[in-house]
Amino acid sequence: MKPQFMIAAPVSGSGKTTFTLGLLHALHKRGVKVQPFKCGADYIDTQYHTIVSERESVNLDLGLASRTHIQYIYNKYGEHADVCITEGVMGLYDGYRRMQGSCAEIAKILNIPVILIVNARATAYSVAPLLYGFRHFNPSVRIAGVVFNQTVSPAHFAMLKEACSDAGIECLGHLPSIEDINLPSRHQSITSVEKQSIVSVSSRVAEQIEKHVDIDKMLNLCTRIFPCRYTLPYTSEIGIEAMHYSQGKRMQIAIARDPAFCFLYRENIDRLAELGKITYFSPVYGSDLPKADLVYLPGGYPEFFARQLHRRKRLMLQLRDYAEKGGKLLAECGGMVLLSRSLTVRKGGTAYAMADVLPFECTSADSRLTTGYRRMNYRNMEWKGHEFHYSTVLNPDALPTEAPLYTPAGTEVGTPIYRYKNVIAGFTHWYWGETDVMKFWE
């Protein structure tokens, strides 16, 4: 038995992330070991969670993984924690088709209750029917209680509590409006300065949570049997293929990880660790390329570090030499940009030379966000991933795409997947928690 719950909201922008960070901070300050999770493919909130809780956050995403795998990784990473907290995404019931893939579906799969965060800045007793609806809409999704965000006065909160009482839902407290609470922009790398800002914000929110939210009551209401119910044995067959590899030659794996290359899924890294020894290196801060049988360049924000990356001539030569000699290399989004001929950050600005492994130029000038889930059949396997980028390729036909990519609904998208020798590159961030990543090169 341990406290475990999801922090969700009726709509986006209600304050889920701010509240989650404040609660993580408050519990960490008490000496509680909290395992954070994040619904969806988000690469940014998981970094915030990790900074505040000092425990690496894990994605739970039905767009990338099966229901069984969601249960598996929840149990796996939550096993040694005192409390498990999952932050939702969008509105509680917002899925890719009705509630399919939504936070509500994940809460149902894991059998965890929901703490609803409601932005009350411009409402009072009118929240009663909203709360009543969320409580009764789907009995298999249990709303354990509500916390109101951005209350403006004690009288305002008193009306909100009356609404809770009449809706038959537990009121766990509120957060008054706090001036100058701003997390770093989501299109911004997390350097040491941003880390300090995140900790400062979470600390200020934690102080208000301690004053105005009944944390102990929340934990007691949400104590549940752990591990969650499982459709396969806890020692599921997930991971057997990777373990097969690990019984042979132990690989040396080099992973780029710094403020420019930071879009990583925790389970992906753990699966790679089953194959051999991982060594991290930093293109931004001037690391050499470690000796490796496999190099992984994840996505991130190379556009913010174009000048620094351009100056890493030795690393660029090492990457080019590794690729030309047939080294296995997986480059996702920002990692692919690093392997391109050049990166232009501003319209009419400098085209910074990159590693020149792939024969095209990239730009983030006049950028627009491209995002969505992607599916691909490659080497007789289905691959699942997520696309999230502002950069574009100026001459995408310089290499033929290896396979068409589709949305989960089956609509083909123009996103390319490139192969040059043993280099696999594209804008998609792949998830291989249920897939043997080495099959890219078979």
UniProtKB/TrEMBL annotation:
Residues 252-434 form the CobB/CobQ-like glutamine amidotransferase domain. Keywords: ATP-binding, Cobalamin biosynthesis, Glutamine amidotransferase, Ligase, Magnesium, Nucleotide-binding. This is Cobyrinate a,c-diamide synthase. Pathway: Cofactor biosynthesis; adenosylcobalamin biosynthesis. The keyword Magnesium applies. It holds the Pfam family CbiA. It comes from Phocaeicola acetigenes. NCBIfam families: cobB, PRK01077.1. It comes from the Bacteria. Its cofactor is Mg(2+). Residues 6-189 form the CobQ/CobB/MinD/ParA nucleotide binding domain. The keyword ATP-binding applies.
